[in-house]
Design goal:
With about 120 residues, the protein is mostly beta strands. Helix content is about 0%, strand content about 50%. It is built from no helices and 11 strands. Strands 2, 4, 5, 6, 9, 10 and 11 form a 7-stranded mixed sheet that branches. A 4-stranded antiparallel sheet has the order 1-3-8-7, with no helix packed on it. Strand 4 and strand 5 form a beta hairpin. It starts with a strand and ends with a strand.
Length: about 120
């Protein structure tokens, strides 16, 4: 089992920045590819970004490319999502997730462990 706890959400104005963190505990963090997903009110949960176990490969949804950066520190069992140039459309609950594989994947079905989510609200 892997336990995941997100932090860093909040209220920010459009154009601003936030940094989300996801702290993992349980099994060896570096064995798992990780991802960030988000769910806006009334919408499905969707992929935002993913990262290979080593951090050597990343993947992003088109909507966040060039604005968001995913990273991880395996020594600290923590993953990050740096979000810049935020837009009101980025408003959602953001979830971190881990999959039972070292390889990054954009498919939500490939993730076995989930955090409780952190709210990000971007005002216009």
């Amino acid at each position: 089992q892997v336990q995941l706890v997100e932090s860093g959400g909040g209220l920010v104005q459009a154009g601003g920045s936030l940094r989300l963190s996801c702290a993992a505990s349980g099994r060896t963090f570096s064995n798992y590819a990780m991802g960030w997903f988000r769910q806006a009110p009334g919408k499905e949960r969707v992929f935002v970004a993913g990262i290979h176990w080593s951090g050597s490969r990343t993947d992003y949804a088109d909507s966040v490319k060039g604005r968001f950066t995913i990273s991880r520190d395996n020594a600290k069992d923590t993953m990050y999502l740096e979000m810049n140039s935020l837009k009101p459309d980025d408003t959602a609950v953001y979830y971190c997730a881990a999959r039972n594989s070292p390889l990054v994947l954009a498919d939500i079905g490939g993730y076995a462990y989930w955090g409780q989510g952190t709210q990000v609200t971007v005002s216009s």
